[in-house]
Write a structure and sequence with these properties.
Blueprint lengths: L6 E5 L2 H12 L2 E2 L4 H9 L8 E4 L2 E4 L2 E5 L10 E5 L12 E4 L5 H10 L3 E8 L2 E7 L5 E5 L1
Length: about 140
């Protein structure tokens, strides 16, 4: 039986980074179930310290996921999870963002304007890409 998976990204500010990536990919931030969170705290299964407010919504402090607007059948979810230590080395895994019919240069410019950092352009045969980092320094590539 084949397995499913999600991609998990360590983050110092998971809710902010989830917002950035959802905008970058045209994906959706998974909605928070505030009633469920409150019930978990009320039942003693979680504490107030396990929660925070992001953009006026009660959320779990330790993570935030995004998903493709067509659902999990289209692409796995990406979970941004809170970690305390800063990123210090190059990622061993990164996302390659394919723009399809959209202009990859326009996306690169938009992402840089929103906090990405340009690293370099790459080429292998007819294939080209631009390598960036997101606002927390995680590498990503943008190509057609």
């Amino acid at each position: 039986m084949p397995y499913t998976f999600q991609v998990s990204v360590d983050s110092a500010a998971p809710h902010d980074l989830a917002d950035w990536w959802a905008d970058a990919l045209g994906w959706e931030v998974e909605p928070s179930d505030e009633e469920f969170i409150r019930s978990m705290v009320a039942a003693g299964h979680a504490s107030e310290e396990d929660t925070t407010t992001h953009r006026g919504v009660l959320v779990w402090r330790t993570g935030q996921a995004i998903r493709h607007p067509d659902g999990l059948e289209r692409a796995p979810r990406v979970l941004f999870q809170l970690i305390e230590e800063p990123k210090t080395v190059k990622n061993r895994v990164h996302l390659d963002v394919r723009t399809g019919e959209d202009d990859p240069k326009a996306l690169v410019e938009r992402l840089i304007a929103k906090g990405a950092t340009y690293l370099h352009d790459g080429r292998q045969g007819p294939h080209t890409w631009t390598t960036l980092t997101d606002p927390e320094g995680n590498e990503l590539c943008v190509s057609h």
